[in-house]
Amino acid sequence: MKIRALTLGFVSVATLLGAAVPQGAMAQGLRPSGSAQAPRLSPNVTLPANTNGRPVTRAADFIVAVVNSEPITNNDVQIRMERVRAQAQAQGAALPPENLLAKETLERLIMEKIQIQNAKEFGLKVDDFAVSQAVKSVAQQNKIDEDEMIRRLAKDGITKEQFRSELRNQMLIQRLRERDVEARVKVSELDIDQYLREQRSAAGNAAVASNAELNLGHILVAVPEGASAEAVEAQRVKAQGLVDSIRDGKDFFAVARESSNAADAAQGGLMGLRTADRYPELFVTATQKAAVGSVVGPVRSPAGFHILKVVDRTMTGVPSVAVQAHVRHILLRIGAQLPEEQAAERLEDYRRRIASGQATFESLAREYSQDGSAQGGGDLGWAGPGRFVPEFEQAVAGLQPGQISGPVLSRFGMHLIQLIDRREVKLSQREQREMIRDVVREKKLEEAYSTWQQETRSRAYVEYREPPQ
After folding, report:
1. Dihedral sign, Cα of residue 239, residue 150, residue 411, residue 182
2. What does the alpha-carbon distance between residue 315 and residue 298 come to, in Å, rounded to a whole number?
3. Does 346 score more than 70 pLDDT?
4. Per-residue confidence band for 18, with pLDDT thresholds at 50, 70 and 90
5. Can you give the pLDDT at residue 418?
6. Quick check: 413 and 343 in contact, CB under 8 A?
7. Helix (H, G, I), strand (E, B) or coil at 224
8. Closest CA to 42 of 128, 108, 114
9. In 3D, which of 342, 337, 318 has the Cα closest to residue 436?
10. Beta carbons of 173 and 119 less than 8 angstroms apart
11. What is the pLDDT of residue 239?
12. Which pLDDT does position 59 carry in this prediction?
């Protein structure tokens, strides 16, 4: 079985902003209105197919590039390529030719090496607690416990220490991106107006179909590679059963969280509003005649059986509906007086007191939360995807109504989060403009990030090495 990648929030482009939160607008955990959000990183921990404990045989290793005196080896490239292949297979995606894949993989490793070096020069760090929290998130996404996940990783030749080191490096890169890219991007009301004019102009064009945007919900019932006809049929029957339960009234997003094998299961399978050309062609074809709100499937691909819900479709780039979450939280700020481990222990104690009936979430928030929302019992109101910072949002996505998270570390401190409820709502004009703000921000961020990468790359010394003869 493959271990799916930890998603630190990145889907391709961040999920769109929902309704603005009416109270506690500057609450820590919320993304401040108008603030930029750096491209979210998804650590490359998707692994090759299980080798049943047999080590992968590799040729003699050699250096293929030197980055500021640090080497990248051929084995580094081959290992990453195996993971790229595994992820593509799991998602049913096509890969470029082998020589091009090798070149792209090496360039990505070079950029990662440069960014990690820069992060360390700036004194950025990722503490052990944050890494442990990320490990738990990977296990939760794969619906297995940590010990079992570590055993499966070991079968594929990756030790626990290597796994933690990779996560630490990817989180370090994310913090560098937030530090260097986020401050570059501002979105004005004029930017929003310009975006709307462009979209309306495109909607009047004969090529309007290529500008259509979709927001799909997705459930995957995976079929293992090389599965027998009987096993394939069993998975088809399972998928059809899920479709039947949804059409009988069960919430699509709850079914996705419970049963989907896709990497976006923790987010209820919600893939976010994006242009049709950024979805798999199979998904676009299957849903092109389906009405908003309808469910399609099961649809077969090499990865398995897909169930799709048309959450929204727009020809102007302005979403009309969003899935919102109503949450409350308790925030403890991290510092010399309160290290991460101690803050986590306090929040775990609060969680136990709530579970035993000794206290309510609201009363503990009023007494202990170091946030502007404390007076209201930690209530952050209704918020759509993209309104919270990635770590906070990921925790919310994994909760059922009424559930309380474990301690969650973000840039603001340590949180205890309770999901009160979810709802699918039609957005007001003001709420639509706030969602468009995030769309425009993402576009600007992609441009700023690309520029930042080029600048970072140009300042580094990179020497390519020819393979030994």
Report:
1. negative
2. 26
3. yes
4. very low
5. 96
6. yes
7. coil
8. 108
9. 318
10. yes
11. 94
12. 55
- pLDDT surpasses 50 at 5: no
Provide, rounded to the nearest whole percent, the portion of the chain with pLDDT above 70.
83
Which 3 state secondary structure label does DSSP give 113? helix
CA 353 distance to own-chain centroid: 31
The tens digit of pLDDT for each residue in 158-175 reads 889 989 998 899 888 888
List the end-to-end C-alpha distance of the chain, in Å, as a whole number. 37
**Three-class SS state of 367:** helix
Task: Record the tokens describing residue 348, joined without a space.
Answer: 């775990």
For CA atoms 259, 260, 264, 269, give the dihedral sign.
negative
Check residue 202 and give its pLDDT.
Answer: 62
The CA distance from 148 to 134, in Å, is 16
Query: Residue 23's pLDDT is what?
Result: 30
How confident is the model over 95-109, as pLDDT tens digits? 889 889 999 999 999
According to the model, what pLDDT value does residue 420 have?
Answer: 95
Decide which of 24 and 109 is more confident: 109
What gap in Å lies between CA 35 and CA 28, rounded to an integer?
13
CA angle 10, 441, 384 (to 5 degrees): 60
- Give the confidence band of 205 by pLDDT, cuts at 50, 70, 90: low
Instruction: Look at residues 433, 165, 173, 151 and name the one whose alpha carbon lies nearest to residue 317.
Output: 433
Rounded Cα distance between 346 and 333, Å, is 12
Q: Is 186 helix (H, G, I), strand (E, B) or coil?
A: coil
Q: How many residues does the chain have?
A: 469
Q: Other C-beta atoms within 10 Å of 228: how many?
A: 9
Is the Cα torsion angle 393, 396, 397, 398 positive or negative in sign? positive
DSSP H helical segments within 182-268, as ranges? 189-203, 229-247, 252-259
CA atoms of 402 and 377, how far apart (whole Å): 15
Under 8 Å between Cβ of 358 and 16 = no
Burial class (CB in 10 A: 0-12, 13-18, 19+), 159: exposed
Q: Which two tokens stand for residue 347?
A: 């929040």
Q: 251, exposed or middle or buried, with CB in 10 Å at 0-12, 13-18, 19+?
A: middle
How far from 42 is each of 5, 134, 169, 250, CA to CA, in Å? 7, 11, 11, 30
DSSP state of 369: -
Q: Would you say the C-alpha torsion 275, 13, 326, 374 has a positive or negative sign? A: negative
* Strands across the sheet containing 408-410: 379-383, 321-332, 413-426, 408-410
Provide the β-strand partners of residue 66: 71, 463
Q: Evaluate if residue 252 carries a pLDDT over 50.
A: yes
